[in-house]
């Protein structure tokens, strides 16, 4: 049976449609965005064919989202005495590839401060603190502002049913009342407007009551479950367990014990983050010692959540200036994509025990050679956040009239 052929362009060249599909699906997003202009048939294939978008995404390198300082936006700041001034410090969300090429920019209107919420989804959440959270669809540049509630921090995830949910986490005034923190949850309605009136539901505290940390690196949404590191920050039980909130039922699940790790020895500093890796919860330990100048990063994977079984998947040697490491993705060739934070060495700038000036680097770790290769130094890109997240949507998608889709 002869393959179906199609003519494209004015040269009269005919190629089978399956060949065109296969060849184009291997190209990066930047090239495909240009090739939309070749002809109507290519535009329809690249922009509106979900099978093509899925094939291209499965073959392409991962895309990353992060918050950056906008190079050409002015923000008005008002001082306590009522005087105002204009400063060039607006924020923008950027979607970029592993080489640092920016593929999409979405201005964060009115946002002077904002932190990216790690969640490997097709929507991106930027937490504006007590003011609101903003959910952004980079493919269409549309956004929904989720306001109200008593949350000081906002976390984001998707339930197994597909519903997107935002969790508001209250702050705390004293460490001895850490088990009384309030958590609220809301569901993003299909077709929500740009600033949707939000109905918040209170989440009962976990039993037994534990401190659920919601700061940077201490939460992760994986497979419909929002995870929190637990434990008093100044106690030996710090980050000893992981509390789990089922986003579908909005009920707490059984708390999982963290991997067996020792309390930091004298002269050691530990930093721990959790995230998603290989489709499951990961815990990344970064350990450094000023006594012998060594540092390493351990990555654990939760292979059995019900039994609390962890496996140490990687141990990576690190330079002594390492401060924090986040594992973003394992690529098809087995290399691991990392976002590593390093303290800048220099007189009065570097210490193992105290915070100093830092820089973030996107790295690729090769388990075979046990070497990290620098991909992008984020400081030169006006990077203003501590984290980045995978963007799992497709920038090739065009909005449709489906009322069930995320829209504004």
TrEMBL record:
Q: Which domain of life is it from?
A: Eukaryota
Pfam families with a match to the protein in the record? F-box (PF00646)
- The segment(s) forming the F-box domain are 14-55
Q: Which InterPro entries match?
A: F-box-assoc_interact_dom (IPR017451), F-box-like_dom_sf (IPR036047), F-box_dom (IPR001810), Kelch-typ_b-propeller (IPR015915)
Q: By its UniProt entry, which NCBIfam families does this protein fall under? A: F_box_assoc_1
Give the protein name, as stated in the record.
F-box domain-containing protein
| Highest classification ranks of the organism | Eukaryota, Viridiplantae, Streptophyta, Embryophyta, Tracheophyta
């Amino acid at each position: 049976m002869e393959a179906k052929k199609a003519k494209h362009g004015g040269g009269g060249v005919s190629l089978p449609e399956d060949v065109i599909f296969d060849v184009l699906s291997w190209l990066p997003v930047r090239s495909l965005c240009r090739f939309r202009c070749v002809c109507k048939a290519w535009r329809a294939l690249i922009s509106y064919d979900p099978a093509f978008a899925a094939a291209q995404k499965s073959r392409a390198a991962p895309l990353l989202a992060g918050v950056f300082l906008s190079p050409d936006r002015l923000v008005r700041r008002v001082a306590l005495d009522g005087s105002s001034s204009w400063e060039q410090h607006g924020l923008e969300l950027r979607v970029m590839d592993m080489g640092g090429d920016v593929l999409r920019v979405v201005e964060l209107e009115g946002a002077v401060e904002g932190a990216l919420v790690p969640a490997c989804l097709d929507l991106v959440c930027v937490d504006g603190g007590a003011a609101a959270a903003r959910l952004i669809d980079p493919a269409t540049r549309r956004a929904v502002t989720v306001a109200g509630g008593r949350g000081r921090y906002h976390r984001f995830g998707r339930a197994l049913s597909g519903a997107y949910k935002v969790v508001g986490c209250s702050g705390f005034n004293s460490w001895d009342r850490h088990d009384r923190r309030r958590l609220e949850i809301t569901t993003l309605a299909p077709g929500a407007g740009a600033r949707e009136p939000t109905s918040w539901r209170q989440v009962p505290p976990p039993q037994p009551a534990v401190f659920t940390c919601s700061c940077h690196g201490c939460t992760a949404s994986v497979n419909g479950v929002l995870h929190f590191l637990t434990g008093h920050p100044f106690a030996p039980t710090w980050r000893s367990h992981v509390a789990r909130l089922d986003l579908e039922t909005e009920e707490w699940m059984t708390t999982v014990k963290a991997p067996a790790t020792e309390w930091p020895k004298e002269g050691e500093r530990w930093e721990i983050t959790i995230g998603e890796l290989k489709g499951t919860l990961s815990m990344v330990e970064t350990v450094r010692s000023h006594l012998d100048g060594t540092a390493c990063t351990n990555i654990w994977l939760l292979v059995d959540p019900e039994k609390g079984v962890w496996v140490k998947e990687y141990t990576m040697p690190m330079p002594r200036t390492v401060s924090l490491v986040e594992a973003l993705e394992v690529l098809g060739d087995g290399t691991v994509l990392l976002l590593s934070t390093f303290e800048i060495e220099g007189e009065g700038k570097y210490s193992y025990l105290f915070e100093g000036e830092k820089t973030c680097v996107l790295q690729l770790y090769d388990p075979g050679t046990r070497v990290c290769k620098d991909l992008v130094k984020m400081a030169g890109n006006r990077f203003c956040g501590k984290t980045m997240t995978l963007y799992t949507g497709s920038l090739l998608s065009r909005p449709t009239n489906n009322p069930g889709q995320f829209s504004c």
